[in-house]
Amino acid sequence: MCEKIVLGGKMTNITPETRIMMMRSTDGRHGYRRQILAALAVSLGPFAAGLSKGYMSPAIASMQDPHHKNASFTVSDQQASWIASLSLLGALIGGILGGVVMRYGRRSILLAAALPYTLAWVATAFSTSVDMISATSFCGGMLVCCITMITQVYITEIAVPEIRGCLSSVSKILSQIGILISYSLGAYLNWQQLAFVVATAPILLFLALLFIPETPSSLFLRGKEEEAADSLQWLRGPDSDIRQELATIRTNILASKQYHNGRAGKLKVLLSKRLTRPVLITCGLMFFQRFTGAHVFSFYAVPMFKKTFRMMNPHGGAIATSAVQLLASCLSGMLIDNVGRLPLLMISGVMMSIALAGYGSYAYYMTIFMNSTDLTQTEPGAYDWIPLICVLTFTIAFSLGISPISSLLIGELFPLEYRSTGSALATSFSHLCGFVNVKTAADIQDHIGLYGLFWLYAGISVLCLLFVVLFVPETKGREIDEMDPKYVESLCINR
User: What is this structure's pTM?
Assistant: First the structure.
């Protein structure tokens, strides 16, 4: 349905979606500022997650250090793999739990999870056994998964399409800052002291959440229309005209409820393409994200660099990797809304494949050198820059494409009525893959060597590129369903 307005002295037809874009353009900067502030506030959750992710590598090295004065227990390689992987197993449960409780609001659940996450890290700092650290690792993983999953949904629901990709990258950038801080402090602090540092971040998240509203979509879905209008007004700015956008959200959510109430049987709803297609796409991306070696680098960066470096400081290599990852995340934030999702994903797949194959080849060379009895061979310490360049290239590719975009698509592809369920399925599957990958990496390495492990990751990266080309849609500039004026028409077609 079109309306007629006067532009340049002439009567012109205008569609509802054009009207919404015109309203946004007249007061965009002010509205953008509020959305940016809200995104920064909730992104303190991924910042806390980054601190915890970066914690594992230096902490495991500290736990295994025989010179650590306060060590009351020792940690073997197998125990270290359990400590690292149990956080991902906890995240698997956290993804399911987050999907169940998300219906009660995005902001309210973030508030409820923040302080218990701090307590989990305080308990880690006071741990006196491997079992206790394993338990706190599991609980922390469960809580942080809820936080990061709901953060992504929150940002998707508050942001206009023009800056949604950029705001989504803000959470990734803060996550990388957290990793960098943990790696840097981990070179000087032991695992107990570092745990206290991580424990402060959720407190900052709790305080920041007190100053931002719930998402309009979530409030509308729970029948709180007045609060939804106040939330949308706050996000778009006090002088913004939100009537058309508010009416669109209201109409689409009511139409969606009527559509699904009229469907026969829950099984038919669950097998609907509106749920299954996004689940298959997001779970596919999550599989490739986890099984291309990123988590192995995150959790075992220092131990792995010890195996391939002959002269360089392993902690320095981990810090350099984290710094480059931060810069790549910033670059992704600038490109994602301009270049698009698909080009970045394809570039990411190509670069990761080359970098992983290169690292595996150098590890193979190191194996040959270490097993050689020919003393005339050149000491490989002069070539430490080769594995470092491979890791940095992989890090840039991963942070530029598949890492931020796979999370962004969870919020973009699922309709509002399936967003909790779909997010829980994709996130839980992601952490299941992460748990399997981190736990089995050491075992696979024992069977096929470090070089074989990374050649395997390179092959999976090639498959990732094919998957992206064949199945992943471009969502650049697309409205999420409840904010799309054409959404009701699509429901009618689906009938």
Answer: 0.74
